[in-house]
Amino acid sequence: MRKYFGTDGIRRIANTELTPELVYKVAKAGAYVLSKHTEHAPTILIGRDTRLSGTLIESAMVSGFLSYGANVKLLGVIPTPAVAYLTKKLKADAGVVISASHNTYEFNGIKYFSNKGMKIPDSLEEEIEEVMESGKIQELSAVNNKIGVSEYRQDLQEEYIYFFRKNFEDELENLLTKNFKVAIDTANGATSEVAEKVFKTLKIPHEIINNKPDGININENCGSTHLENLKEYVIKNKFSLGLAYDGDGDRCLAIDEKGNEIDGDKIMAIIANHLKQKGKLQKDTIVATVMSNLGLHKYAENNKLHLLQTKVGDRYVLEKMLEEGYNLGGEQSGHVILLDYNPTGDGILTSLMLIQSILEQNKTASEAASIIKLYPQILVNAKVDNNKKYDYETDKEIQEAIKKLEKEFAGNGRVLIRPSGTEPLIRVMIEGENQEEITKKANEIAKLIEQKLK
User: Fold this and answer.
1) Domain-terminating residue out of 96, 125, 152
2) Is the distance from CB of 106 to CB of 15 less than 8 angstroms?
3) 343-384 pLDDT tens trace
4) Is 366 a catalytic residue?
């Protein structure tokens, strides 16, 4: 069981749980683990989102890296995928993002990226924790001329903007019309500045909302976790499409011209359709997690596509993609990985690919999204004894109830039981054709699990 790292790096309340002292140790141990096979002083890039605590965590991180002897390039406020892209492009030894993604401002977090621009695997996070806890960290101090130096490199944002220009300018120039206009919600986060520059560079008619970060308004009733304002804005101002990013810019959800949500599953279906028509969908396959909607399964089945599933977490989606040579994958939450471009979820990249897919089909956003029908879904948490979270797998009564329900669905519904990685909870997710029915069934199974495993 890991002590610090969760499913997406370290994430805690800043300055009480994620203290400068802890951050310093994470930096020192991380620099050692990620560069121990190199014979040169490592170079590490650091980017952050707009949280009030960002510079505090950044300062502690820089101190840890410099103390180890690593050199640091400070990118300032920049999306997570930009750090991944620049780490690989500049051949740096590692990249770090200081962000708590979609969480509220009092949280902050640390995500490490390898020199290939990918989130580091569980095994390396475990190794970093071992170094932190071993006492060995005291030995990792550079002396004299071996101490590292840092420099501000906010200018590298332009490299990230050029990446989009290089890949989309020619295509979009021939597709865009003055009637096609998008609304963009940057969640007062890491994309607040760069999204405006990208869309201006590509001459996409647009308006941006929630791009005035003040340190505490990141994700506050805005962005991909709060779509209500964007829906209203799109309808009221008659936009062709609404785009919503999360705090660190690695997710994108969308709103069609009628105010309907286009979630990650729908986005993947639209892009898969686009790529397949162009002969660019590797092995005609989408990689998704077990949480993806049954509708995505049906869409794949009806369109002669393969859908592969992984456990929850975009890192596991990426691992499967790399392992078997696929180029499209993602999560219902809006993490979409387009491996031909960047080895991590990228909100701006996803939105540009979505725009291109819609325009090339000469359809409205709602027409493009109509290729997939999502099933009603309900998620209920069952409170259990933390030591019994996995006992549902062997409990005869629970398993019989699940099998009975699956038989009733006859292929038009799904039951997914998943223990929480951090809390004494078992999550009961059910999909089916009738919202009222699945809500009733989910509560029944959750109640049974609580009775048996408390």
Assistant:
1) 152
2) no
3) 999 999 999 999 999 999 999 999 999 999 999 999 999 999
4) no
